[in-house]
Design a protein that fits this description.
Layout (H helix, E strand, L loop, with lengths): L1 H35 L9 H10 L1 H26 L2 H7 L4 H42 L11 E5 L2 E8 L5 E10 L5 E14 L4 E14 L2 E12 L5 H4 L11 H13 L5 H11 L1 H17 L7 H29 L3 H21 L3
Length: 359
């Protein structure tokens, strides 16, 4: 039985590896073409574009793992079905659920790999890639709304052109302060900011500041070489500002969502990304279960090409359902956890239903 389990496991793992290689290679080509379109802006060169693509490759692998597991399970089991190996196994008295268990072993490895990539490997590399790109495209010359990030902190709206890796150095910091009546009272621009850690407190030291004070009937300007900026923004929080929520770590998302809540800002987008990443292993498991049920059911005699087509269709429908539920939770205000769980539960229930029909 161990030898049989090993044969099934190796077939499925090999199929998953082939699917990962093909899908990620295509994604890399399209991403590189997209990045090459931005070369020539600032100091962003072809080499920088290639470096960006390589640094973001773990993120691409992480995002595609559930669908490559789905395709690998369909193709791997499909090969066994086409060679009549599944029929021979069942004729020899091997129960269907024993075969399912053998397929789920590599799936559990994919689920663990997904958690490790999403928490420890992908986010820091994504932060480094985005920080380097922002520096090369924007730098500290002036405010550029296409690059960098906008945030509200207290009574200030701030824009940061670029954040150096680690988050302790900022470039191009624009600050717009409003009063209780939502009237603009000052605007300033600092070329850079350095985080200062003191025993009693921590703050940002701004350099080369240009400030405009807006009063009824007059505007006064002033220049400063340095200014201490007391604000509750740690480098740990800033280091993820240039990274989209879906590409941040699970712990980082939770920390940043709580920070948004403390500031009285909308944190639903970050909680949505948090639940999506935390439950991604369940997405992988549900998709693989559906793939297994199809192989023992309607796709038992299908060709490999048709199985690939079905895998693409299932992945597309699952993605569409996710993309519909996620913004719906933000617009209508229902629990982000529910929005993430519904597509997973639907796919999982469909897989269990088909598997029960085999009895």
């Amino acid at each position: 039985m161990r030898q049989l389990d090993r044969h099934i496991r190796n077939t499925v793992i090999a199929s998953m590896a082939v699917v990962v290689a093909l899908v990620v290679s295509l994604d890399l080509v399209f991403t590189l073409v997209d990045e090459l379109g931005e070369t020539g802006q600032g100091s962003y060169s072809v080499f920088n574009a290639l470096s960006f693509v390589l640094l973001t490759t773990p993120t691409s692998i992480y995002e595609l793992l559930p669908f490559t597991a789905l395709g690998g399970a369909l193709i791997g089991l499909g090969i066994l079905a086409s060679n009549q190996e599944l029929v021979v196994m069942q004729s020899a008295g091997v129960h269907v659920w024993r075969i399912v268990a053998a397929v789920l072993k590599p799936t559990l490895f994919i689920m663990l790999l997904s958690l490790l990539l999403g928490e420890y490997v992908s986010p820091p590399l994504e932060q480094l890639a985005n920080s380097n790109k922002a520096l090369q495209l924007s730098g500290s010359a002036s405010i550029g709304s296409e690059q960098g990030t906008w945030r509200r902190v207290g009574n200030e709206f701030i824009h940061i052109n670029a954040i150096a890796p680690g988050g302790e150095t900022l470039y191009g910091v624009s600050r717009y302060r409003i009063d209780a009546n939502r009237q603009l009272v000052s605007a300033s621009f600092a070329e850079s900011a350095q985080y200062q850690r003191e025993p009693e407190n921590a703050y940002w030291r701004l350099s080369n500041i240009r400030e405009s004070l807006i009063e009824p009937g007059s505007i006064s300007t002033a220049n400063y070489l340095q200014e201490d900026w007391m604000v509750d923004l740690s480098p740990e929080l800033l280091s993820v500002l240039l990274v989209e929520p879906d590409k941040q770590s699970i712990t980082g998302l939770l920390r940043f969502a709580r920070f948004f809540e403390a500031q009285g800002l909308d944190s639903a987008n970050y909680f949505l990304a948090f639940w999506k990443k935390l439950l991604q292993p369940l997405s992988t498991l549900a998709l693989v279960m559906l793939a297994i049920s199809f192989i023992f059911g309607p796709l038992r005699e299908a060709t490999t090409g048709f199985r690939v087509f079905v895998a693409l269709g299932i992945g597309l429908l699952f993605t569409i359902l996710q993309r519909l539920m996620e913004p719906a939770s933000l617009i209508y205000g229902f629990n982000p956890l529910l929005a993430v769980l519904m597509p997973i539960a639907l796919v999982g229930a469909l897989g269990v239903y088909y598997m029960r029909q085999l009895r």
